[in-house]
Amino acid sequence: MLNLPTSFKEKFEKLLGKDEAAKMFAAINQNTKKAYRVNPLKAIQQVSYDQDEAVPDLDNAYYGEVNGQDPEWVSGTVYSQDPAAMFPAKIAKVKPGEKVLDLCAAPGGKSTALGQALKGEGVLVANEISGTRVKALRENIERWGISNALITNNDSETLAKNFPDFFDKIVVDAPCSGEGMFRKNPDAINYWSPEYILTCQSRQKEILQQAVKMLKPGGKLIYSTCTFSPEEDEEIVAWLVEQEGFKVLPIPEITSTKISHGHPEWTNSNLVELKETLRFWPQDNVGEGQFAAILQKSGEPAMVNEKKVKKNMKNKKKQHNKLALTVDERKLVGEVLDQFDLPIALKQWSKQALVRQDHVFIPALTDESKLRGLKIVNNGLELGLLKKKRLEPSHQLAEVLGQVSQTRVVDLAQREDYLSYLHGETVKVDTNLKGFVLVSYQDLIFSFGKVTGQKILKNFYPKGLRILKKN
To answer: Catalytic site residues (predicted)?
Structure first.
């Protein structure tokens, strides 16, 4: 039984009434709701998990538990995520070609869904201020096969200087008091206090003030938290309406009766539009706690300045020429890529690929004015590293190649071989293939390998992803 703070219980008894609050407290002491999404970008989407119970109002999302050593996870075929946390990316309704920012992106659940919706067109900027958490963000975006993401490690103020009025949509899953995580992470109870809620509210406003600067006139802001407190939810939305001129938009695609709506009466403003926001309570049995809203920035999108566009294109071309592959480098890259069936993201690689410090990549963003001064973790699709007149293909490339059917694949027959490979070991294989190959288990591609003349599969699974022990 979790020891919920007395002030927390008193607060929600007052807001919800004693009967509904009792249901909430009882639900917080029950097991967490776990779920996963299936990746529609991958060529093979069959999974071994039960799909009898779908998450309401979401595509390709089901209740169930994922093991981090399962081939479904390792190959990026599934993403384990709290079901309620899946909704902010859903309601963003991202379209191919849009410019999208996930401002507080780690560990990557929302970024993978946003990038997936772009279908390789447009750009996703996935930002995380934590240097530790941004590593997990990169791993998850790569595993999911997103090829057009710029991953950055900056504070919101730094980003705002580079991207004024730039994005069509911005998702801010703001740092919060974490009340919705009490049953998932009981440690969150220890640092909860009424004062902490106000600290979080202040931080949320600071982040949103920078997000407002980066959103185009007429652009959409998706705001979410994993907390129940009106101070961080309805009051923040009311502040955006009253101070920043935003308009709250309805979310008609969410129809489940298990999902609640916002409470205007919990704010001083009493804005009727707050009823359009979404609330996820643990007693409604969808997932953990979540709040979500869509708001639209005032104003009309600016007219395109043709002269400025031509100037930018000219500058991009100069930068591209400076980093473009030489004839010899293009040949080395082609010797690897020409052996595989290429998805759309790679069809024009010879024209798009750049090289910097021997890293060959197809950038998601080429405008140097947007990149200057940023801590960039990854820009687009890393193809590989040039070494001694050869290209060593990247792990990200393997995950992207998994989007289409491949023939140059070694499928590991035994689970023991699969776990050995994840552990970083070489494996004896029965194949006539030689050189670089894609490696799969249960037909799910998850890595590159290299077959020697002795039919030994040399290990190219990244050291940072390897398992410490074989279960």
So the answer is: 226 (nucleophile)
Classify residue 471: in a domain, yes or no. no
- Pair (278, 393) in one structural domain: no
The reply, when asked if residue 109 is annotated as ligand binding, is yes
In this predicted structure, the answer to whether residue 306 has a pLDDT above a threshold of 60 is: no
Q: What is the pLDDT of residues 338-392, one digit of tens each?
A: 999 999 999 999 999 999 999 999 999 999 999 999 999 999 999 999 998 999 9
CA distances from residue 283 to 12, 14, 71 in whole angstroms, order as listed: 13, 17, 33
Give the residue ranges of DSSP H helices in 49-191: 71-74, 87-92, 109-118, 133-144, 156-162, 187-190
Cβ–Cβ under 8 Å, residues 94 and 114: yes
Q: Which percentage of the chain shows pLDDT scores above 70? A: 95
pLDDT value of position 320: 56
What pTM did the predictor assign? 0.95
**Are 225 and 99 contained in the same domain?**
yes
Domain that holds residue 240: 6-296
**Is 93 within the bounds of a domain?**
yes
Q: Is 425 exposed, middle or buried (0-12, 13-18, 19+ CB in 10 A)?
A: middle
**415 and 319 fall within a common domain:** yes
Which residue shows structure tokens 């507080």?
104
Query: What is the rounded CA–CA span in Å between residue 6 and residue 64?
Result: 33
* Closest to 406 in 3D by CA, of 369, 449, 381, 443: 443
User: Is the same domain home to 228 and 354?
Assistant: no
371 part of a folded domain: no
Band of the pLDDT at 397, cuts 50, 70, 90?
very high
- Both 343 and 430 in one domain: the answer is yes
Q: How far apart are CA 163 and CA 302, in angstroms?
A: 15
Q: Considering 296, 320, 343, which residue would you say is the last residue of a domain?
A: 296
List, in sequence order, every residue forming a beta bridge with 393; answer none if it has no partner: 384
- Distance between CA atoms of 48 and 82, rounded to whole angstroms? 19
pLDDT at 78: 98
Q: Is 149 annotated as a binding residue?
A: no
pLDDT greater at residue 367 or residue 318: 367
Annotated ligand binding at 122? The verdict is no
More confident residue, 418 or 309: 418
Active-site residue list: 226
- Helix, strand, or coil (residue 450): strand
Buried b (16+ CB within 10 A) or exposed e, 362-378: bbbbbbeebbeebeebb
pLDDT in tens, 54-82: 999 999 999 999 999 999 999 999 999 99
Distance (Å, whole) CA 261 – CA 154: 33
Between the CA of residue 460 and those of 90, 263, 439, what are the distances in Å? 35, 53, 10
**Is residue 128 marked as binding?**
yes
- Indicate which CATH number applies to the domain containing 277: 3.40.50.150
pLDDT of residue 270: 84
Q: Is 17 annotated as ligand-binding? A: no
